[in-house]
């Protein structure tokens, strides 16, 4: 039986947070034996907000090194940079002609980002989901492992696939999101009603995967909780504590109930210290590996070159099919 295809990506727009890790990358690793996995650095997407070129390049290598350090294996999965495969931009053009401005204007992420970057509301920011749809549809991906914030973009992707298939003939696989039960939406440490984001102005609001142990511990100690001093999972009334319990559970492998029992009658100080330590212990070996990998640019470039070759082969095949159905001359 043919294996199902999985596609996902992270933008090298900042250092990934533990939200990106538990919502996405951590889960990608587990799928590698079961599916044909394709994982990308979504560098084209980063241009929707202003980037400093040298920083973008450095962060792209850093993200690639983190992928590998977390356990993505270039022998098993295709790992590549989106900008290395021109078909992503080409398919975006075709899909753009089938997308309505109203559909894009109502996207939550577009509305949030427009509010944050009022001085730079560019066409790319609005068109972002169509590029994302192209990423996924080019490879015939059945599943897309993502955090909850990307669900709306997956819905547009499905709509576009169906629209194209209906207008021409069945071409694209209609993909499904895979959203983890736990950790689909890790919240900000400073405002637990907001999602944790790598681009938050307040560095205390997020834990980067490359933060130093002392910074991780300090940020957790400062995390906003409540005044009732009881470690209990209750998202409605105790969003801060519930977020920390979720993080603790994911990083230790304990259930939320086990964690609640562990901290019964104990203060928030002790609880926050334990959450910080659990995260430090998981990130330490990842960072050691990442540092070693970053010293070997030749190897990282080779991973990208191999990935480009494999991804482009698949992308070209799909785009040719699309161009043929549309009525472009085939040479
Ligand atoms: P990005 O770079 O914002 O985030 C990468 C992944 O991390 C997830 N995520 C979270 N999960 C849990 N809690 C959080 N606080 C949190 N913050 C982020 C995101 O849901 C995502 O899965 N547009 C995408 C990148 C992309 C993509 C794609 C993804 C480009 N093309 C095709 C899937 C398929 C993005 O900006 O993710």
General description of the model:
54% of the residues lie in helices and 7% in strands. With 331 residues, the chain is mainly α. The model has no long low-confidence stretch (mean pLDDT 96). It has a three-stranded parallel sheet. The chain has a two-stranded parallel sheet with strand order 4-5. The chain contains 13 helices and five strands. The protein folds into two domains: 5-179 and 296-326, HUPs (Rossmann fold, 3-Layer(aba) Sandwich); 203-291, Tyrosyl-Transfer RNA Synthetase. Strand 4, helix 8 and strand 5 form a beta-alpha-beta unit. Bound molecules: tryptophanyl-5'AMP. Tryptophanyl-5'AMP (TYM) binds next to strand 1, helix 1 and helix 7.
What secondary-structure arrangement, pairings included, does this model have?
Layout: E1 5-10, H1 18-31, E2 36-41, H2 43-46, H3 53-70, E3 78-81, H4 87-96, H5 101-105, H6 108-116, H7 123-137, E4 143-145, H8 151-167, E5 176-178, H9 213-221, H10 239-252, H11 256-262, H12 268-294, H13 297-326
Parallel strand pairs: 1-2, 2-3, 4-5
Helix pairs in contact: 3-12, 4-7, 4-13, 7-8, 9-12, 10-12
């Amino acid at each position: 039986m043919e294996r199902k295809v999985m596609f996902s990506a992270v933008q090298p727009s900042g250092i990934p947070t533990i939200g990106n890790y538990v919502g996405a990358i951590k889960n990608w690793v587990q799928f590698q034996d079961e599916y044909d996995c394709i994982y990308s650095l979504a560098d084209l997407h980063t241009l929707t907000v202003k980037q400093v070129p040298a920083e973008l390049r450095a962060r792209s290598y850093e993200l690639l090194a983190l992928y590998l350090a977390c356990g993505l294996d270039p022998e098993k999965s295709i790992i590549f940079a989106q900008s290395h495969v021109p078909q992503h931009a080409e398919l975006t053009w075709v899909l753009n002609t089938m997308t309505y401005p109203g559909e894009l204007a109502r996207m939550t992420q577009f509305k949030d980002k427009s509010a944050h970057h009022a001085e730079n509301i560019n066409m790319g920011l609005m068109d972002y989901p169509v590029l994302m749809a192209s990423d996924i549809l080019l490879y015939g991906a059945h599943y897309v492992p993502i955090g909850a914030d990307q669900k709306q973009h997956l819905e547009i992707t499905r709509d576009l696939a169906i629209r194209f298939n209906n207008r021409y003939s069945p071409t694209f696989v209609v993909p499904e999101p895979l959203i983890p039960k736990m950790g689909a939406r890790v919240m900000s440490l400073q405002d637990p009603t907001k999602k944790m984001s790598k681009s938050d102005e307040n560095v205390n609001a997020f834990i980067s995967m490359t933060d130093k142990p002392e910074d991780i511990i300090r940020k957790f100690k400062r995390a906003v909780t409540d005044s009732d001093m009881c470690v209990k999972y209750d998202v409605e009334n105790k969003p801060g504590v519930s977020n920390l319990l979720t993080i603790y559970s994911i990083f230790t492998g304990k259930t939320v109930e086990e964690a609640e029992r562990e901290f019964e009658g104990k203060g928030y100080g002790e609880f926050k210290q334990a959450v910080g330590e659990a995260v430090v212990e998981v990130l330490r070996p990842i960072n050691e590996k990442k540092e070693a990998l970053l010293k070997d640019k030749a190897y990282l470039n080779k991973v990208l070159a191999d990935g480009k070759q494999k991804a482009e082969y698949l992308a070209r095949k799909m785009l040719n099919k699309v161009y043929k159905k549309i009525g472009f001359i085939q040479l």
